Fold this protein.
Amino acid sequence: MFVTPAFAQAAGAPSTGGGITDIFIQLMPILLLVVIFWLLIFRPQQKRLKAQQAMLSAIRRGDTVVTTGGIVGKVTKAVDGEDLEVEIAQGVKVKLVRGMISDVRSKAEPVNDNKPA
């Protein structure tokens, strides 16, 4: 009654322009959030993980280390990929898993075990 025939025909017809651009515009905020999360969360976390792994693999005999429990000790035996033996007091040695070291306080000079006595 109040609608003209031309308007009624145009309203039922599908719009042909901008299908791909509409989808792209709708996905743009989601893509932007993914990029922001990657830059602010995942990338720094990966860098910290690599630095931690490098620190753990570089532990040698004579290093002063701090465990995740806060115990400070001196490494007396370190085998690559194995447990560490840490002296936490005079004559008190404990065996630790390498991953439970949170910090290396001081690096010792390399020890030469092959020196003649």
Q: What stands out?
A: Helices lie at 5-12, 19-57. The chain has two helices and five strands.
